[in-house]
Amino acid sequence: MTRDPDQLIDAFAGELAGRPGLPSFEEISDAEFLAREAKKIDLGKWDADPDIRPLIAALLVRRAFQTSEPGETFKAINCAAKAIDQSHHPELGEFAGRLTALARDVRVQERTAEPEQSAARRTGTLPITVLFSEGPIARAYLATLAADGLRPARIINMVSTKNLATGAPVGRLVPAPFRRGYRGWAQRQQIHHWPKTIAGKHPQLLAQCTKAVGALGFDEDTQADARALRPLNAYCDDIVEIEVERLKDQALSDLLQSLSPSVVLFTGGGLVPRSLLSIGDTRFLHIHPGKLPDLRGADCTLWSSLIGHRPSASAFWMAPGIDTGRVIASHWLPRLEIGAVDGVDPKTLYRTVYAYVDPWLRAALLRNVMQRFDDLSAVNGEEQDLNAGKTYHFMHPSLHPLAFERLGFTLPRDG
Description:
Elements: H1 5-16, H2 30-38, H3 53-64, H4 70-85, H5 93-101, E1 124-132, H6 136-147, E2 150-160, H7 176-191, H8 193-201, H9 203-214, H10 220-228, E3 239-244, H11 250-259, E4 263-266, H12 274-277, E5 283-288, E6 295-297, H13 300-308, E7 312-317, E8 327-332, E9 339-340, H14 346-372, E10 390-392, H15 400-407, E11 409-410
Parallel strand pairs: 1-2, 1-4, 2-3, 4-5, 6-10, 9-11
Antiparallel strand pairs: 5-7, 7-8
Helix pairs in contact: 1-3, 3-4, 4-5, 6-10, 6-14, 8-9, 9-14, 13-15
């Protein structure tokens, strides 16, 4: 297998040459590609004719290795692999594997973990409202606060009226007095299906993740508390439940306006609409698994590891746009030592990262922020340079193994 970009492009072009209806490289201009790339469009989902996508992929790879900036190179490889996947030429799949093999040759600067700023430990009630969206992230946050003897002033528990995967209504036939309880139960079952499945089928993998996360300062009891799915009143005395279909629901906006919290801790559930971000003096705190402004977007636990050889996280005030708000804290975190994962398929590893690793990377920074600032509402944060950094899209599975290794997994030699 060639690991030379020029040879790979030549092989790719030769494979495509002469196919009916396909334009030449010259007919797909670099100028058009650059114009779209400048708008940060995920080119793997470009709405071009699928027959043209392999050529776009080839252009992406050629451009990738003309830059010395590793983020641009990885982004181009990622988009090229997606473009090939979505083409009408599945036989070209071999090239996706070959181009992602080149990723191992991309030189990156290994980052250094930044020590937490020391702060006097405090206990009691925090003047924050947790906008609770059931899932591993929200559970890790509550367990982290509880372990430190902290309780949020209020939890707003969002109960979904729709199936999160299909969008179908939930509990229509359940009697009204029991419908909300049933919907909450169904939501927990759906959201925690894969975490529970992984724990049952791969207990050693869970044990390894638990030990690795322990290096961030979370003991086994704290992590077990998050997995226990305890009632929310175990963490807070003021629980407000609201049934929602999405974050844009007017009822949620009305509720937040009536409560007027100064700080809302966002725990997931989708993109926060402008209607919520514009509520009075209320500000939304988000913990993003990437160092801002360098790493914005999706899958940043993996992108951070791929580009920096270690995870990172940032706390910021949410604003319209993707991860563009004022930054309160942003750190490279310690590299984890998870160890060998023989016999675990890549899709399960991906789900494991987001069930048992990513939530605790976020929680580590949340804990630091909550202990550092007595009155978070008075913290303005630093404005981001929106021209700095990059926005990353969901990582193509062919790049996952390298990202897993740099996050702390030890994969089989053929993994």
